[in-house]
Amino acid sequence: MYRGVVKSFGGVTVLRNVDIDVDSCEIVALLGPNGSGKSTLFKMSIGVVKPDSGFIRVGGIDPVSNPVEARRAVGYLPEEPLIYESLLLEEYLSFVLSVYGVKASVDEVRGVVRALGLEEHMGKFMGELSYGNKRKAMIATIILRDPKILVLDEVFSGLDVASVKIIRSWLEEKRSRGAAIIFSTHVLPIAEAVADRIVVINNGEIVVSAKPNELKDFFKSRNLEDIYLRLTGYRSEYEEIIRALGHR
C-alpha cells in the first residue's frame, strides 16, 4: 500500500501524492513512460529510497523504519540486475537463499533452474551471463523464497518467449495462493492478459487505476496501447510520427 507518497531529487519532484493499493490475490500492472517514477516507487517498498512525505506498508511493515523486515517480506526484482559477478550461478543461488534463511531442496532448485532454462549456466560466473539470464537468476531466487508480496520492476524485460510464459504462469499461481503482486512493464499485451488492475503513472502522478475492461469501456476502445498513449499524452505525437513515416 502506498499513501500520499511524494519524492523529489535535487528539487525535481518525481512522485506526487501517489496512492496505490495492492490486495491479496491481486495482480496490479504499473504502466508509465521511462522516468515516470515507477522504479523509485518500487525501491521504496524495501526502504532503499525513503519518501519525503506519505507512507508505504508492505504486509503491515513500514520499510522506512524496518527495511530488513520489509526485504524479507517482499520479493523485489530491480530493473537492473544486482548480482555478485565473481560468484558462479550455483553459488549465487545458494548465497541468496542462505541470506534469507531459505532451505530449498536440491530438487526444488533444480526444478526452478530447469524451468527458467538456466541448467547449462550453473557453472558460469554471474558476470559472464547475459542480461536476460542474470534477471532469470534473480527471479529464480524469488520463486524459491516464495514471498507473499511481489514487487517486480520490468519483470519481463530481457526474457525469451518460453521464460515469459513461465513467469506468467508463476504470477497467476502466486495470485491463486493469496499473494499481492505489483509489476511494471512496457509490454502492454502481457499487462492486459495478466493484471487484474492497471495503474498508469505519468510525470510522477497516478493518471488512472482500473480493470482492463473498465478502461476499454470508458475509452470505447479495445486497444490498450491506444488508451495508454492517450493517458500519457503521447497519442498526438505518435500519430504525427506515423503520418510522417507514411509520407516517406
UniProtKB/TrEMBL annotation:
Keyword ATP-binding set for record: yes
All copies of domain ABC transporter, residue ranges: 2-228
InterPro entries: AAA+_ATPase, ABC_transporter-like_ATP-bd, ABC_transporter-like_CS, ABC_Transporter_VariousFunc, P-loop_NTPase
GO molecular function terms noted in the UniProt entry: ATP binding; ATP hydrolysis activity
Alphabetical keyword list: ATP-binding, Nucleotide-binding, Transport
Transmembrane annotation, as ranges: none
Record flagged with keyword Nucleotide-binding: yes
PANTHER family per the UniProt record, alphabetical: ABC TRANSPORTER ATP-BINDING PROTEIN ALBC-RELATED (PTHR42939)
Protein's UniProt name: ABC transporter related
Species, as recorded: Ignisphaera aggregans (strain DSM 17230 / JCM 13409 / AQ1.S1)
